Amino acid sequence: METAEFKQRMMPYAGQMYAVAFSILKKPSDAEDVVQDIFLKMWEKRHSMDSIANLKAYVLSSVRNKSLDMLAAGSRGNEGGVLECSDEGRAAEQVERKEAATRVLKLIAAMPEPQRTVISMHDVEGMGYDEISDLTGMSEGNLRTLLSRARKRIRDVFKR
């Protein structure tokens, strides 16, 4: 596959790739890094791209997984970030919420693949069951079951 054909097949997904990465990482430079990494990996796999049944789903899943891995690895710190709160009580509450959100994302990153995919697409990216079903090929009932199990796993960890 030549460069022009690769660009023709991959560039339509660039905006969505960035949106998925940014929705997870909340940092433009990290989102750009993830998109660049996935483009590089896809370039290295360009000769086998024809064997991928749903390129869009494959690429967006790769971006999501890479973003969650980056988040779980702690690559995305709050470097020099300042909390903008009017009093210490609200600042502490905001820190607790941020820590809980980070903990949830790390739990999601550690989940088995089908659960991680479904909860990321539904709860993190805000996709509907029909869209997730189209991208993954799973039935809506299966998606609901996987989502329920993933949420239960998170609740169980927070109850401890």
Automatic annotation (TrEMBL):
Residues 103-154 form the RNA polymerase sigma factor 70 region 4 type domain. One of its GO terms (molecular function) is DNA binding. Pfam families: Sigma70_r2, Sigma70_r4_2. Residues 13-75 form the RNA polymerase sigma-70 region domain. It comes from the Bacteria. Keywords: DNA-binding, Sigma factor, Transcription, Transcription regulation. Coiled coil: none annotated. InterPro entries: RNA_pol_sigma-70-like, RNA_pol_sigma-70_dom, RNA_pol_sigma70_r2, RNA_pol_sigma70_r4_t2, RNA_pol_sigma_r2, RNA_pol_sigma_r3/r4-like, WH-like_DNA-bd_sf. SUPFAM superfamilies: Sigma2 domain of RNA polymerase sigma factors, Sigma3 and sigma4 domains of RNA polymerase sigma factors. GO terms for biological process: DNA-templated transcription initiation. Belongs to the sigma-70 factor family. ECF subfamily. This is RNA polymerase sigma factor. It comes from Candidatus Merdivivens pullicola. The lineage of its organism: Bacteria, Pseudomonadati, Bacteroidota, Bacteroidia, Bacteroidales.
